[in-house]
Amino acid sequence: MKTAAVICEYNPFHYGHRYQLEQTRAAGATHVVAIMSGNFTQRGDAAIFDKFARARTALENGADLVLELPTVYSLSAAEGFARGAIQIAEALGCVDMLSFGSECGDIAALKEAAGASEFALHTEEFKEAMRKGASFPAALAEAVKTYYTADVYELLSSPNNTLAVEYIKALDDIGSSIQPFTVARYGADHDSDDEDKSFASASLIRKKIISGEDYSTLAPVIDSPIADIKRLENAILTNLRMMRLSDFECVYDCAQGLSERLYKAVRKACTLDELYFLTKTKRYTLARIRRAVLCSFLGIDKKQLKEPVAYIRILGMNTRGKEILSAAQCGLPIDTSLKNLMKQSRDAHRQGAFEERCGDIYSLAFERPRPCGYEFTAKPVIIE
């Protein structure tokens, strides 16, 4: 038995994801656990299908066990996103390898880039670029460019490589024995609208789903209600208009003046797109602004991200998934029931209650809103 973990969003699951799972098994994995974002995603958006629908599709296409990555981490920048997911993988106690996609497809090169990234954070070049108003990724790349060869700099300029580097750093930080393994990404670029590649991007598929177009050649079709953050637009703007500047300053990832930009922009903006546009500068990437808006709306503060994961929630499994759980030497409470998990400790109750609240808000993003309590009434996906 060799268990691989995959950190994912599956927003939605597409054939590129299935290819990764196939390559992971070809590399020797007998069992695959997917650690998947729940209701909200790293790009600062509502997941297009709910987590149970996405878990089912993953189980039908190569995953064996699907665990939830809590909202606090799924709405984090690459470092926090990776750290939360790695905590879960390590806590299972039976994961042998971590599989992830990357543009370069070379573990040795990614490890070198991870070392370069860590070094660059402490250089004067990085600090100076940040002082001049560069975005975090741009400042980091500038510092790496000063001290390393062009290939390392170019590697860190690609989104999947950047996330892969954070996975490697997170494994190193905790001294994990989990071995990293990468599958070279090919097909359309991240966020590309190109349909002529072997695998389309998730962003193109989402556009087709929302517009009602056929996407069956690009991804497994999911027969489930569609969530759209636009349905939360007035609620988000209302909440942010009621916030004081000091409230924004407490929000996760609102440093480097972003809190003040958001505070001023929301007083002029009448739509979410306008809010993003009015906040945008070269220092803040659009993804960071979108995350900051959702973190402000949901109430994710800087302290929450520093808290360790208090439990592991199972969203779905098949027969091999049950074998993973039998082999697990779990260092955290693990269950399909959020209600049961919340009884395990004070921290678990606090984190579970926050997840419940986020779920109740997400339930308003559907054309036919769901009542409160879906986090407690939804059944895990069991495939025999």
Give short descriptive properties of this protein.
Rossmann fold, 3 domains, 8-stranded mixed β-sheet, two-stranded antiparallel sheet, globular
Helix content: 40-55%
Low-pLDDT runs of 5+ residues are: none
CATH superfamily of the largest domain, please?
A: HUPs
Q: Which word captures the global form?
A: globular
CATH class of the largest domain: Alpha Beta
* CATH level-3 fold name of the largest domain: Rossmann fold
The N- to C-terminal Cα distance equals 19 Å
Q: Treating each run of at least 4 consecutive H or I residues as one helix, how many helices?
A: 20
Question: What count of domains describes the coordinates?
Answer: 3
The CATH level-2 architecture of the largest domain is identified as 3-Layer(aba) Sandwich
Sheet with the most strands, sense and barrel status: 8 strands, mixed
User: What fraction of residues sit in β-strands?
Assistant: 5-15%
Reading the helices and strands in chain order gives EHEEEHEHHEHHHHHEHHHHHHHEHEHHHE
Secondary-structure-based class equals alpha/beta
Q: What is the rounded Rg? A: 20 Å
Number of strands: 10
Rounded average pLDDT:
93
Explain what this protein looks like in three dimensions.
The protein has 384 residues and is an alpha/beta fold. 49% of the residues lie in helices and 11% in strands. The chain contains 20 helices and 10 strands. The strands form 2 sheets. Strands 1, 2, 5, 6, 7, 8, 9 and 10 form an 8-stranded mixed β-sheet that branches. It has a two-stranded antiparallel sheet with strand order 3-4. Helix 5 crosses helix 7 (136-147) and helix 5 (107-120) crosses helix 9 (159-173). The longest helix has 17 residues, at 346-362.
